[in-house]
Design brief:
The complex is a heterodimer of chains A (113) and B (114). Chain A contains no helices and twelve strands. Chain A is mainly beta and 113 residues long. Classes of the chains: A mainly beta (113), B mainly beta (114). At the A-B interface, β6 and β10 of A face β5 and β9 of B.
């Protein structure tokens, strides 16, 4: 079964600085998607960004970008110009055709003013 | 925000009692999901539905049943609640099961089984 590992239970960043959250996954599939979800204190799960495995170009959404290394099975999230509203739990997730969504355990991000 | 509501939002119950959680959507999405969220595990799929009366098991389905009698409603039932089912439960919806499809999540239900 596919597994998703987030090795950093907690991270902190100074406001306006950049932080990178790590995610690795295990799969034998070649066609899949990877996702980052944000869960603020309200508990609402919000999709931040997604990456299709067949696309070599890293996805970007405003201040959020990913570093997708397919051979290394690594999918990190970079948050630039961190804001107080970025404080949340961040979950990395994986999904291939015919499989269910698999989530990592999450990384709690604290933003210091 | 996707129109997804969950009820109740909080519940405290005792071991051995039945519990039903409700998910209601106004988006007319075909697929609905129930996840549980636990520290150290992220979210794990319990059951999902691909249409009225069509459901299938997920990764952690033991001790749970589901029903979907209308497109907009997906019920999760704990027939006899146990302390190990203390968790936060999320409903999600999607238009399809394509691998890149966005899943939209409800606000969650916090369940405490004493």
């Amino acid at each position: 079964a596919q597994t998703v590992t987030q090795s950093q239970p907690e991270m902190s960043v100074q406001e306006a600085e950049t932080v990178t959250l790590s995610c690795t996954y295990d799969t034998s599939e070649s066609d899949y998607y990877l996702f980052w979800y944000k869960q603020p204190p309200s508990r609402q799960m919000i999709l931040v960004i997604r990456q299709e495995a067949y696309k070599q170009q890293n996805a970007t959404e405003n201040r959020f970008s990913v570093n997708f290394q397919k051979a290394a099975k690594s999918f990190s999230l970079k948050i630039s110009d961190s804001q107080l509203g970025d404080a949340a739990m961040y979950f990395c997730a994986y999904r291939s055709a015919g499989s269910d969504m698999r989530f990592g355990a999450g990384t709690r991000l604290t933003v210091k003013p | 925000d996707a129109g997804i509501t969950q009820s109740p939002r909080h519940k405290v119950t005792e071991t051995g009692t039945p519990v039903t959680l409700r998910c209601h959507q106004t988006e007319n999405h075909r697929y609905m999901y129930w996840y549980r969220q636990d520290p150290g595990h992220g979210l794990r799929l319990i059951h999902y539905s691909y249409g009225v009366k069509d459901t299938d098991k997920g990764e952690v389905s033991d001790g749970y049943s589901v029903s979907r009698s209308k497109t907009e409603d997906f019920l999760l039932t704990l027939e006899s609640a146990t302390s190990s089912q203390t968790s936060v439960y999320f409903c999600a919806i999607s238009e399809s099961r394509r691998k890149g499809e966005t899943q939209y999540f409800g606000p969650g239900t916090r369940l405490l089984v004493l």
